[in-house]
Amino acid sequence: MVIFTLFFLLYLEYKPYANTSHQITSLTEYFFTIYQFILNQTLGIVHEGGHGVCYILPCPQFIMVSMGTVFQWLFPLGIAYYYKRKGNLTAFYIGLFIFGISMDYTAWYMSTAHEGAFLPAHKSFLGVDALHDFHYIFSTLGVLAYESLISGLTRTIGYLLMIASLIGMFFETFSNKGNKN
Length: 181
Description:
Elements: H1 2-13, H2 27-56, H3 61-86, H4 89-111, E1 118-119, E2 130-131, H5 133-141, H6 147-173
Antiparallel strand pairs: 1-2
């Protein structure tokens, strides 16, 4: 619980998608940066895997573009669901926490939809020019003008999930379930 609380506080300060680069000044920030890098690369691989499923199966383009985010969100939700079924509430809350991070990162990606139909290589997970998922999705649905509202709501839900997970971890850590006094 303490580690995830620290991660949340550091996450608010040093978002993985912040445009400002800075010098790492402490050991804590160094470990946080490594942990954050691993987490974001994992979610990025899962995201691209979602698109890959539709490269194998004959999916319409809208479904293919959407599957990246669907997979990116289902991965931590699947972990949370698995551990909830097993009765491990701490691991369940960790899965929800990671889902909150995934939602926040998706909110950032949504907020860049207005920049155009193509994502430049320096912003792309794969390092190549690519179709911007949310420009395509929002344009197709006719909601591109509401990009900031949609991304803001997504970010808020992500933060609320992270906070709710921390509260759940706190109560799970300090509950008296094993005490029969």
